[in-house]
Write a structure and sequence with these properties.
Keywords: Hydrolase, Metal-binding. InterPro entries: Amidohydro-rel, Hydantoinase/dihydroPyrase, Metal-dep_hydrolase_composite, Metal_Hydrolase, Metallo-dep_Hydrolases_sf. Its EC number is 3.5.2.2. By secondary structure, the protein is an alpha/beta fold. It has one domain: TIM Barrel. The protein has 17 helices and 22 strands. It is globular. The termini are far apart. Bound molecules: N-(aminocarbonyl)-beta-alanine and zinc ion (2 copies).
């Protein structure tokens, strides 16, 4: 494989803290919870269970009353991205440092070439920016922002030689990154040939352009114009169109940053007829805040919330999106972390179309979802692990090295304290910006320890990341989760990262299937709702809608809104009162 610069790992990182025991915790995987200790050696999980035999001198972390979960995987970040005449504030060091602080131990960033630029040249630029800075492992998606036979050839090379298995196309950003439908057909078809995964930014760029002209002509220049130019219907139309194109090209599809109820409805309908898996991603921003901020009289405040697709003013949106995530209408949650400074956002002071698009989220994604979904009883911890980690690992072919706490997996582990209480604020966050879209949100539940490749990088709340500790993760194509119709192999004895599987891509997998069966195909691929199947960690899958908290006394307590604004305190009783379990 020919790739960009090979990085040297400093000696002190190779030798320190190579043995670690996490004791007395409840290990949460996407398919179950068990009371077990976890022994880590040389960056790999070596044993999971009780009464383990451990070498002397091993550091022990006591995880009593804590959850031991796979480190988060954020499938959607933009570090050191230049867009709309500005550069994101978070680079690969500060961005991954913020990720680790919040419990995320793998990120997947987007290489976004300019129109006409070689995809491989852009990819090499990204590797150069990232390799020596990342504090955790990372992978890369590549944007296809223009089309020609040479682009197709480079897509083949990226898959064959550079460890890329996903390509993002844009149906918006007319005049910069947008492709037309014919080009989308060709990209999706090429992805299907390469057994790669097409990803789509679904918004109708032509409608946005026309609406924008009308709004500006009418004198609407404030950030409110951003959402007005691209309402829910504009997103839902593109979701539907992308699904139709993918279906016609017999390609699976991953829809990034789904922001509205209408878009989720369009996805739900498409699922009934789709031949291949469709994966829906939403964002921490959608779950943790809303589009009412666009009408805030303060430009700085309103502009800080501008991203595309936008947050929705409909106040029911966050709850509907969480419900969709919990019920598997959406499969995972990313951050789309794309932070710009106040100065850069100011570019759009007199014209909302010039506000660089993007918000924070990589640090707070997990705590926000925990607070809004688990503490409210809408989601159990297993599903939390699925949508924040395991499903991303499976979709991008990183499973079972990533996304689970199991023997043989990478030691990317979070010790999650469900009683740790703090209030999110820009003053305390680790981003390179001074605004946080979740400012003032009180969360109960956050990481106490974060272990990255066996190294304790958040140590009882103290952040000790190492710049350059992370490595590039090649993501092989032909992911069994997408192209086999079967869940991937078990962690034990299976190849790490590169799960080779038999080619299985009939032109039409729909033959003889009813729409309901097709929906089931998608549900099976999503891997969480079919009873009786064994799962990649060898456990039985849950019945639809049923919690599987075997061996566990874990109890999800009601959220209580309080006025405490301390950054980080441990609550004596669980939110909502005492219960017999973990508390
Ligand atoms: O507003 C956003 N989402 N900025 C990042 C670029 C993209 O479209 O993902
Ligand atoms: Zn996008
Ligand atoms: Zn993005």
């Amino acid at each position: 494989m020919t790739t960009a610069p090979v990085k040297k790992v400093p000696i002190h990182l190779q030798s320190s803290q190579n043995r670690l025991l996490i004791k007395n915790g409840q290990v949460v995987n996407f398919d179950g919870i068990e009371e077990a200790d976890v022994y880590i050696e040389d960056g790999i999980i070596k044993q999971v269970g009780r009464n383990l035999i451990i070498p002397g001198g091993t550091r022990t972390i006591d995880a009593t009353r804590k959850l031991v979960m796979p480190g988060g995987i954020d499938p959607h970040t933009h570090f050191e991205l230049e867009m709309m005449g500005a550069k994101t504030a978070d680079d690969f060091y500060k961005g991954t440092r913020a990720a680790v602080a919040g419990g995320t131990t793998t990120v997947i960033d987007f290489v976004l070439p300019n129109k006409g630029q070689s995809l491989i040249e852009a990819y090499n630029n990204w590797r150069e920016k990232a390799d020596n800075k990342v504090c955790c492992d990372y992978g890369l998606h590549v944007g296809v922002t223009w089309w020609s036979p040479s682009v197709k050839k480079e897509m083949q090379q990226l898959v064959a030689e550079h460890g890329v298995n996903s390509f993002k196309v844009f149906m918006a950003y007319k005049d910069t990154w947008m492709l037309d439908d014919y080009e989308l057909c060709q990209v999706f078809e090429t992805c299907a040939e390469l057994k790669a995964l097409p990803q789509v930014h679904a918004e109708n760029g032509h409608i946005i352009a026309r609406n924008t002209e009308k709004l500006l002509a009418a004198g609407v220049t404030t950030p409110e114009g951003h959402e007005l130019s691209r309402d829910e219907e504009v997103e839902a139309e593109a979701v539907n169109r992308a699904c139709v194109i993918a279906n016609q090209m017999n390609a699976p599809l991953y829809i990034v940053h789904m922001m509205s109820k209408s878009a989720v409805d369009a996805l739900r309908n498409a699922r009934l007829r789709q031949r291949r898996a469709i994966i829906g991603e939403t964002l921490a921003a959608t779950v943790g805040t809303d589009g009412m901020h666009y009408t805030n009289a303060c430009f700085r405040h309103a502009a800080a919330h501008v991203l595309s697709p936008p947050l929705r003013p409909d106040p029911d949106t966050p709850e509907a999106i969480i419900k969709a995530l919990a019920e598997d209408d959406l499969q995972l949650i990313g951050s789309d972390n794309c932070t710009f400074t106040e100065k850069d956002k100011e570019k759009g002071k007199d014209d909302f179309t010039k506000i660089p698009n993007g918000v924070n989220g990589v640090e707070d994604r997990m705590a926000i979802l925990w607070q809004k979904a688990v503490n409210t009883g809408m989601m159990d911890p297993c599903r939390f692990v699925a949508v924040t980690s395991a499903t991303a690992a499976r979709v991008f072919n990183l499973w079972p090295a990533k996304g689970c706490v199991a023997v043989g997996s990478d030691a990317d582990v979070v010790v999650w304290d469900p009683q740790l209480e703090r209030t999110i604020s820009a003053a305390a966050h680790h981003h390179a910006t001074d605004f946080n879209i979740f400012e003032g949100t009180r969360v109960v539940g956050s990481p106490q320890y974060v272990i990255v490749n066996g190294r304790v990088c958040l140590d009882d709340g103290e952040l000790r990341v190492a710049e350059g500790l992370g490595k590039f993760l090649p993501t092989p194509a032909n992911c069994p989760y997408l192209y086999d119709g079967k869940p991937p192999l078990s962690p034990q004895g299976s190849p790490r990262y590169a799960s080779e599987s038999p080619q299985n891509s009939p032109a039409r997998v729909t033959n003889g299937n009813t729409p309901t069966e097709l929906h089931l195909v998608n549900k099976q691929l999503d891997g969480l709702s079919v009873s009786g199947c064994s799962t990649p960690t060898g456990r039985k899958m849950r019945e639809p809608g049923q919690r599987n908290l075997q061996n566990s006394t874990f109890s999800i307590s009601k959220e209580v809104e309080g006025l405490d604004t301390k950054t980080s305190v441990r609550v004596r009783n669980p939110p909502g009162g005492k219960s017999s379990g973990l508390w």
